[in-house]
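Long-time lurker. I teach an intro course on protein structure, and each term I like to show students one example going from raw sequence to a predicted 3D structure in token notation. This year I'd like something fresh instead of my usual example. Would anyone be willing to generate the tokens for the chain below so I can use it in lecture? Attribution to the forum is fine with me.
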Amino acid sequence: MIDRIYVAATSQHVGKTTSTLGLVEALKQKYTNVGYCKPVGQQFVDLGDLRVDKDALLFSKIMRFELSAELHSPVIVGAGVTQQYIDNPADFDFRTPIQKASEYLQQTNDIVVYEGTGHPGVGSVCDLSNADVAKMLGAPVVMVVEGGIGNTIDRLNANLALFREQDVPIMGVIINKVIPDKLEKVKYYVGKKLDQMGISMLGVLPYDRTLANPIMEGVREAVNGIVLINGHKLDNKVENVASGSLIEKQEFDALNNLLIIVSYRRLEGVIQTLEEIEHKHKQNVSLAGIIINGENDFIPDIQHNIPCRDYLEMNEIPVIATQLDTYGSAIRINQMEVKINTRTPWKARRAVELIRDYVNLDGVL
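-- Reply from a regular --
Happy to contribute to a lecture. Here you go:
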């Protein structure tokens, strides 16, 4: 039986962490002890006495293990490290901590899932590409690629080259984010090409909109906003976005977990419209939050005099002010790269469901 897996991806934001999370939880149904490690991290969190990759923190919360930098995030390649490494590579020993972490995790778990970083070439400047690390760990690779046909196969071939150079075995491929009505077509044609290449198709996952839904804290960061009220509700998820000027034209069933972007001059009118909608349909509109924008430096004034404050407090609606206009705010929100994190537990649950329903675990094992 396989006792280790390395999960890689053809690029960022194709669902590597989502797939890794789902695989880990699914494997826990088959193994008593399942370990996790992010051998090389880039984006880290500093917890005072603990500096770890943000994905390692996420997995520790979901898998409920005590987080150890030495075991679960042994190497962080932070800002400036690559230049220092090129100048004096002898000053760095990245391999030893990775190997020590692996030795311990392999001894104490039935199977260990290693999560790669970015695309396969990330880390090459420090001789720590995904292929380098997978080779060092002796781990076969599960490759995650975004759905399609021609582009998917082209990207896959280009990204497998590094692993082929290192003679790292490819366990199989997971095709992610496939438009649901094209699922069978992608499965047939990409699967046929993979058969010709001698690579297993492990699963084809449909695009799931819920995994792309941001939370209000992410929206606040995207628009560089200031919280005016109800900051305790920044974990609210956003399913729909509408301009305040168009709120009357929105279908009622599209008002669930709605984020409204509105000028501070029009806020009162929008709230009145929402109250009319609620009265007409005999149920509350579910607002994720409100983004208020305005001209010049309006924020200090509105902080002291928030329109419709009673309504906003009663319904616990988070309100964020930004100097961006409505169009600028909408663009920033639309361009957000939304990832699973510790504040989005519903995404973690959905990731597990997708892997369970669409991936052939017997093929993985």
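Some talking points for your students: The chain has two domains: 4-208+341-364, 214-334. Residues 150-165 form the longest helix (16 residues).
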